[in-house]
């Protein structure tokens, strides 16, 4: 039986991942210069430190009678949930009222930030 050796590029990164029990994805090829079997790990973002950092949860700005207004890192989220038994006109009125209340809450939040 013939032994085959594999030349591993970036051996420190590969061994670090293997010691932590993680998989290593990459390409196995025959090097043109050395004519040896070589392994090159992919430089994927998920292998970089800090990739699995959790995003902070959205912060509640105001609790509304039929929903809530939250502020995330990138968006302001308005959620309104109205039962169907109230009808279309009542639902539209509640949505308009919540939009007005959300606007006021955002203005108050902005004023608190700058004062």
Give me some keywords for this one.
single chain; alpha+beta; 115 residues
Strand content: 25-35%
Strand order, biggest sheet?
Answer: 1-3-2
* Overall shape: elongated
* Radius of gyration, taken over Cα atoms and rounded to an integer in Å: 28 Å
Topology order in helix (H) and strand (E) letters: EHEEEEEH
Average pLDDT: 87
Q: Helix count?
A: 2
Low-confidence stretches: none
The helix fraction, in percent, is 25-40%
The largest sheet, given as strand count, sense and whether it forms a barrel, is: 3 strands, mixed
Q: Structural class, from secondary structure content?
A: alpha+beta
Distance between the termini: 78 Å
How would you describe what is shown here?
The protein is α+β, with helices and mostly antiparallel strands and 115 residues long. 31% of the residues lie in helices and 25% in strands. It is built from 2 helices and 6 strands; from the N terminus they run βαβββββα. It has helices at residues 11-19, 88-114, and strands at residues 6-8, 26-30, 37-41, 59-64, 67-71, 76-80. A 3-stranded mixed sheet has the order 1-3-2, with no helix packed on it. The protein has a 3-stranded antiparallel sheet with strand order 4-5-6, with helices on one face. The N and C termini lie far apart (78 Å). The model has no long low-confidence stretch (mean pLDDT 87).
């Amino acid at each position: 039986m013939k032994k085959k050796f594999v030349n591993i590029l970036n051996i420190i990164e590969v061994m670090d991942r293997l010691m932590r029990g993680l998989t290593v994805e990459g390409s196995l090829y025959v090097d043109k210069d050395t004519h040896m079997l070589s392994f090159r790990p992919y430089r994927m973002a998920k292998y970089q430190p800090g990739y699995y950092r959790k995003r902070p949860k959205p912060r509640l700005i105001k609790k509304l009678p039929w929903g809530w207004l939250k502020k995330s890192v990138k968006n302001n989220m308005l959620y309104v949930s109205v039962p169907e038994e109230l009808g279309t006109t009542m639902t539209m009125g509640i949505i308009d009222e919540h939009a007005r209340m959300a606007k006021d809450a955002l203005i108050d939040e902005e004023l608190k930030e700058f004062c």
